[in-house]
Amino acid sequence: MIARLAVILALILASSSAMAEDVMLPGEQEAEAQALMREIRCMVCSGESILDSGAPMARDMRVFVREQIAEGADAEGVRQALVERFGHEVLLRPPMEGRTAPLWIAPVAFVLLGGVLLFTAMRRTSRKKS
Amino acid sequence: MIAEIGRFLVALALIASIAQTVLAFLAANRKGVGPFARAGLSAAEMAVASAGAGFILLIALFIQSDFSIAYVAANSHVDKPLAYKIAAAWGGHEGSMLLWCLMLAVFGLGLARIGPKEAGLRMRAVSFQGLLQSLFFAFLAFASNPFDRILPAPLQGQELNPILQDPALVIHPPLLYVGYVGLSASFAIAAAGLWQGSRGREVATALRPWALGAWTSLTAGIALGAWWAYYELGWGGWWFWDPVENASFMPWLLGAALIHSAIATEKRGAFPGWTVFLALLAYILSILGAFLVRSGVITSVHAFALDPERGVWILGMLGISAVAGFTLFALRAGSLGEGDGFEPTSREAFIGANNLLLAATAGVVFVGTLYPLFIELSGGATVSVGAPYFNATATPLLVLLLVLLPLAPFLPWVNGGAKAGVRQMRAALLLLPVTLTGAVFIWFEAPVMAVIGGALGVWVIAGAVMDTLRSVPSAQTGPLRALAIGRALAHAGVGFIALGAAADASRPPDIHVALVPGEQMQIAGRTLELQDIRRADGPNYLADRAELTVSGASSGTVMPERRYYPGADQHTREVALKSRLSGDLYVSVGEPRPRGDGVVGYEIRAAFHPLIWALGLGALMVVVGGLTALGGRLANQRRMFQRRELSSTGKATPEPAE
């Protein structure tokens, strides 16, 4: 795992030596890149996005994302590329698919269940009254 | 020698807690204050005295820097300032568990002294609390004793994690723990009520002040933690949806639901089962929080004291508490009684909606926090559940909550009163379009969430102002006035928090550049010029201090630092803040790094956080509001009690209801 990461890191560094700094992209592209970076997890800092993290690796990942966007890649493509390199953990927003379905069903289920309970509690009067 | 006395005191507190459980249990089945009740009270006093003395001894060991104690060696260092040596006593795992135990015992004694008026309910609650104490004291004595020695004793300690060496962090854990552990008192009362078959109304009345006090303290603890994260972690974030924060957020959400549903149960008998269930669940989630933080099961920004073995213990305590509480609930919930029922535009309905939204949010946080663990355990490819998930799921629920919040205090109980409510709210209703327009104007080009949040914040604050104007003058007694003021203050505080969060969601500027002295950068109408970088070492760290002059919208100098703590081998950033009404200028300095032009510059990160004070002010208002309401509630209770005594002697005077 560490070795794989090291290789990936070296690759990213080599490809980005010309852009070792956080150079912002022009207008629209920068907005797109930032929206994407907000949802990419910094792999060495647990929980923070690469947009927020001060870690060197997050900087390298930012450079990678900006390069890809500058070359015209779409957000989904960049996400795919990152998932191939780092695994699904790199996405802070879990995708909607079979095994993550409970995550997306749960909120709706809680609200529905609560709604039914509340409705039942409310109805008790009407029955008493009538 | 001190350590051995400490070990003895921990064991003594465990025995006293067991005695408290048994004696209070025996006393509960007898009439009046018999010998068992008196002995139970003594046992509770003994538990507090031994745990308290143990805690003082632990602090003494830290002051002496006695590194033959494993816990001291792992968390202290001779060079550390005295205040942080003392604070380290509760900064690590074992010490914080001792603090947890001490507080459990204090709440046990509190229940025995000023707990439920009815003796049976009180003694059973004390007995239950004794059980909760015994579990944690056993854990402390057998699996995480802060007085354990190590051989050979190291000459130097390992230093407390330097980012924890901060004034806010000295009081953050105690406040948080008063909150977590305070919820144990409402758990004990709920369980006691189920056990003896009390009516829901009786239980809600007895547990309400405990829940309110605990929740207020939890609010203060979480707010301090957020504030600390804001200025200490170096990038201006204050809420991360990090598992450890979520661990404190779940009991907070349920506590917030509980203090509202308990009102409806106490006054109108609505939701009796739900209120009791919430009281049980809130403390269960507090222990779950301890499990997530202390077992190291989830590595996160906060994951400090890690030891997988302890996880099993905490899980066991969680299991015993949950099984005891929920079995009682399943068997006896029927005797709590059924709710009286209400109409959709009554205050009960709105409190119900408040509970629905708060509990659903807690459910979402629970699933989002634990599901990645579940996937990992089931062997699938791991997933991360981060801020984007919670923003997409929890935020809409909280937005809906804010829409409904200001309306509730204007609605009458039981019977629908939409018309009357709307009439009293008409000025606030007018404010809605005004604030919407204003918000769009202020945050022109701001994201939708920022505009919605800003408008809602103002909507809630306006509602609270209206509530104050209507309820405070019409309150008939001092305590009732305090309750009305507390409610309005806390609600307005929620509005300010929404406002601050919305400003933060407006994507304020955040710039990183590498500068050499003499160079400038621009941010939010301000020009920053790096003057100088020089050494500024402290007692236990080495530091580089940058000096930047600020001109433009605000002016002066800021001096962020980059520190290195050799004891802990760790770098930290000390942020420099320049606060104005419009917001905070936030500057930190990082490592030197080569730039595109080959020059080595210091990384300067500058950000502007608009209206960030609204978050702090809001949290403060919620806390002050909670305390005010608690004071009013206790005074009112005393008044009612005195009236009842008087009326039983023949001088009846009608008392206005709360």
Task: Write a structural description.
The complex is a heterodimer of chains A (130) and B (658). With 130 residues, chain A is mainly alpha-helical. Chain A has helices at residues 2-15, 27-37, 56-70, 75-86, 101-129. The longest helix of chain A is centred in the last third of the chain and has 29 residues, at 101-129. Chain A starts with a helix and ends with a helix. Chain B has 658 residues and is of the alpha+beta class. In chain B, strand 4 (542-552) and strand 5 (556-558) form a beta hairpin. In chain B, helix 17 (478-504) packs antiparallel against helix 18. The model of chain B is unreliable at 300-306 and 651-657 (pLDDT under 50). At the A-B interface, helix 5 of A face helix 12, helix 13 and strand 9 of B.
Features:
A: 130 residues; 0% strand; elongated; B: 658 residues; alpha+beta; six-stranded antiparallel sheet; 18 helices; globular; disordered C terminus
